[in-house]
Amino acid sequence: MAKRTRTRTATDRNRYSVEAEWTPTDLALLRDLKKAEALLPNDAPRALLSVRLSVLTDDTTSPVRQELDLRKLALDRGCRVVGVASDLNVSAMKVPPWKRKELGDWLNNRAPEFDEILFWKLDRFVRRLTDLSTMIDWCLKYGKNLVSKNDSIDLTTTAGKIMITIVGGIAEIEATNTSTRVASLWDYTKSQSDWLVGKPAYGYETAETEDGRITLVIDKDAYRALHWCRDAALRPRPASARRMAKVLVRAGYCGPGLTTSTMLRRLRNPALMGYRVEEDKNGGVRRSKVVLGDNAQPIRVADAIFTEEQFKSVQEALDRRGRNQPTRQPGGATKFLGVLICRDCNSNMIVQTNRVKGRSYSYLRCGKCKAGGHGAPNPEEIYSKLVDDVLKVLGGEPVMTREYRQGAEARRELQRLEEATNYYMTGLEPGGRFTKTRFTKEKAEKTLDDLIKQLEAIDPESTQDRWVAVHNGKTFRSRWEEGGMEAMAADLLRVGVRCEVTRSKVQGVRAPHIRMKLMIPKDVRDRLILKEDDFADAF
Description:
- With 539 residues, this protein is an alpha/beta fold.
- The protein folds into 4 domains: 10-177, Resolvase, N-terminal catalytic domain (Rossmann fold, 3-Layer(aba) Sandwich), CATH 3.40.50.1390; 204-321, Hect, E3 ligase catalytic domain fold; 340-397 and 469-531, no CATH class; 407-463.
- Helices cover 42% and strands 19% of the residues.
- The chain contains 16 helices and 18 strands.
- The chain has helices at 10-18, 24-38, 63-76, 101-109, 122-125, 129-142, 158-190, 220-233, 241-251, 260-267, 308-321, 379-394, 408-427, 438-457, 476-495, 524-528, and strands at residues 3-4, 46-53, 80-88, 116-119, 145-148, 204-208, 214-218, 277-282, 285-290, 340-342, 350-356, 359-365, 376-377, 398-405, 466-475, 498-504, 513-519, 530-531.
- A 4-stranded parallel β-sheet has the order 3-2-4-5, sandwiched between helices. The chain has a 3-stranded antiparallel β-sheet with strand order 1-6-7.
- A hairpin with a 2-residue loop joins β11 and β12 (359-365).
- α2 runs parallel beside α3 and α6 (129-142) packs antiparallel against α7 (158-190).
- The longest helix has 33 residues, at 158-190.
- Mean pLDDT is 83; it is low at 1-18.
């Protein structure tokens, strides 16, 4: 008899991957390293430590060990650690450095706070040669350095630049081979009747047989839920998919996050007949299709929950109740999605399009009010009113772009002026080299006055690496006139501008009365500053 075992959930895997245990010995070493670091001069270079793991196992280099090794490296280089970007359970092949949660924040928003990026090994940092090339270009642009603990990588030397390219190429080849093997495995499993890898469709779970093979068995709770849904769909007055989802959640057969679309996808999945399936994206509609074997017959991987006749009857019942909705638009049917908010339930307003007798009707509805609230017809009129209100309030604001300014040149000039000032001040002391004659003394005093004026003219902020806002000569009105509603919607969503929509029923009138209230953050001017995306063209 098969022994039933549930696969570990994604939540469990994530929790297992992100936890790093510090032993008392590790913590003692960390304290010693921080004490030694505190003795460094104030102008010591600043180091950011990058720690990454795909999966934390006994065979991998733990994040604790990576951090301690990198702190030792920073101390040896005379650098002060200003932060640790720890991205665990993250694949370097799939997620480049600038898109990781912690390291990405440092790269995109906190570049002035560090001078070097230290990592344990190159494959802990990147695994694609294109990602490595992008990071080298970024570091050269912003005056940063890349340093590896276990590779000869240092952007301050020509040999280091050559080495980082070579090692990065090897890492990409290694990762590509792994990706090829994984893709080949998936192609192979699609043609097999045995269950090798992957997540089972709803209604099934994995089990281990006595000889150690993994097989699919029917989940008894899901079996009862699916057959109840079939019976409900075939009643004289059939239940809607929304009603089915509510009943199953209330009965505890499904989690609280079950939606109507998920309920329909489960009932329409041909995997319920015990066949192997694959995803088929056609016209923006997510569906699954049966995989055929070499004999042109469906590949059976488990016992059937529905017979072919039962599955067909369910599809016919769903088709009778289904609405002939238009195909999804690539950019989405709703403009200003995330900006227009229902005042009553605080959920997004979305466009609902119905097709009746060949004619399409569109109206705005919300997600949490009963039946979507009072549907607001003519979404384009609401969009137009929102555009007018936004232009009145924010149209005249100048378009400011964030630019990075390095303080290295200003620091060198400041150091030169301070050394020259000290030189002349020492020479004007009693017995100094400029006090021997009246002429040399007067000339030295005049030069010293000029040096002091130049020192006073240097802005202290100019000696620091910093972000500055620069006006590009345009206003947001002209920017939005060029880019249209899409550009305005993207900017409003980015800065957190919201518009509350209130719909009130009017006696004797089908369309409700619409009131709109624009909600603008107090720091909207700071939020409106455009941040250049250094990685927009990176693939």
